Amino acid sequence: MQARDLLSNCQLCPRSCGVNRYERSGACGGGALARVAKVSLHPWEEPAIAGPETGKGAGTVFFSGCNLRCVFCQNYEISHYEKGREVTSEELGEIFLHQQAQGAATLDLVTPTHYVPQIIQALAYAKERGFSLPVVYNSSGYESVSTIELLAGTVDVYLPDLKYYASELSGAYSKAQDYFPVAAKAIKAMVQQVGRPVLDAQGIMTRGVLVRHMVLPGARHDSMKLLGWLWQTFGNDIYLSLMSQYTPMYKAGEYKNLKRRLTTFEYQSVTDYASELGFTQCFIQQRSSATKAYVPDWQDDGL
Ligand code: SF4
Q1: 215-252 b/e with 16+ CB inside 10 Å = b?
Q2: Contact, 303 vs 36, CB < 8 A?
Q3: Contact assessment for residue 52 and residue 203, using Cβ atoms and an 8 Å cutoff
Q4: Integer Cα distance of 75 and 224 in angstroms
Q5: Could you give phi then psi for residue 27, rounded to 5 degrees?
Q6: What percent of the chain has pLDDT over 70?
Q7: Which domains does the chain have, with CATH numbers?
Q8: Please, what's the b/e burial string for 181-196 (b: 16 or more CB within 10 A of its CB; e: otherwise)?
């Protein structure tokens, strides 16, 4: 299907707004042109995405807007307030080529869901001009299987979040009561499409799925349910990243459990459970990551 058809009756994500994005934006804030908030080299992604410590890091391209929009989003300035600049698909392709020329380990597309048609066009443009980095699709996990299918042959590595098991949590924090069944189907489609993780000689992931989960305060049992499902469904056919970096931001102060940081006990009990289940390919985060210092500087868009 052509980009114009996909955007003129937008069903790209499970929100299924059906809007004509040439005339107005839907729940994600995305219009007809991709809007880029920041381009940078990011050393703090998982080593399989950022590459060796001596390297430049992941070549991140942060897109503005979001189809999930969590109340605690650390990137709220770009996801909720839609700060950023519109670019054509050719300009986006040039950005991808620039990231490669800068020495990025991977191309890390952050919150790309609502711009899939534009990204496919931009990657085709860049590949015709020598682009060859592993393409990482770094999303909230709230995806439609049909959109994941559009990405076959374009994306090498899927980096989805798996955020909530309970519909009470996903409804309250992301206005998406169906989050878990939708994300579960999408992650199955991702694994089916790209297969088991493959790493190159430098330890950079060139294919596969790395599922991220950020443990939320007051929700460690929900985290354990997600881990149980992931283990039963995929075993060690995926990589796992357990994040401790939760910091109360944006509207978090309005929710009883989200006002505080995660405790060491909460995080440790979840990482211990992953190990008990048998996960061997699991990235664990330093507790010192739970600070606003790890939020990118949105004033410098790198464009
Ligand atoms: S991508 Fe945006 S406009 Fe399209 S269905 Fe999702 S939220 Fe609606």
Answers
A1: bbbbbbebbbebbeebbeebeeebbbbbbbbbbbbbeb
A2: yes
A3: yes
A4: 25
A5: -65, -20
A6: 97
A7: 25-294 (3.20.20.70)
A8: ebbbebbebbbebbee
118: its two tokens: 């534009």
- Using DSSP's 3-state secondary structure scheme, residue 135 falls into strand
What interhelical angle do 220-234 and 264-277 show, nearest 10? 20
Is residue 62 within 8 A of residue 78, CB to CB? The reply is: yes
E-assigned strands of 103-246?
107-110, 135-139, 157-160, 198-199, 205-214, 239-243
Q: Please give the distance, rounded to the nearest whole angstrom, from the Cα atom of residue 29 to the centre of ligand 1.
A: 8
What's the average model confidence in pLDDT over 241-251?
95
Identity of the residue numbered 52: P
- How high does pLDDT run on average in the chain? 94
Predicted pLDDT at 264: 96
Tokens of 219: 């929700």
Tell me the C-alpha distance between 229 and 171, whole Å. 20
- pLDDT tens digits, one per residue of 178-200: 999 999 999 999 999 999 999 99
Pocket of ligand 1 (CB under 6 A): 10-13, 15-17, 19, 26-28, 30, 67, 114
Stretch 190-217: mean pLDDT, rounded? 97
Higher local confidence (pLDDT), 302 or 267: 267
Amino acid at site 135: V
Instruction: Report yes or no: 55 and 103 within 8 Å, Cβ to Cβ.
Output: yes
Residue nearest to atom 1 of ligand 1 (CA): 114
β 34-42/58-63 pair status: antiparallel
Q: How many whole angstroms from 61 Cα to the centroid of ligand 1?
A: 19
153 backbone φψ class: left, alpha, beta (φ>0; ψ -120 to 50)? left
- Helix, strand, or coil (residue 103): coil
DSSP state of 258: G
- Cα–ligand 1 centroid distance for 16 (angstroms): 6
Distance CA 70, CA 253 (A): 13
Amino acid making up residue 186 = A
Per-residue pLDDT at 83: 85
Q: In terms of pTM, does the model score above 0.85?
A: yes
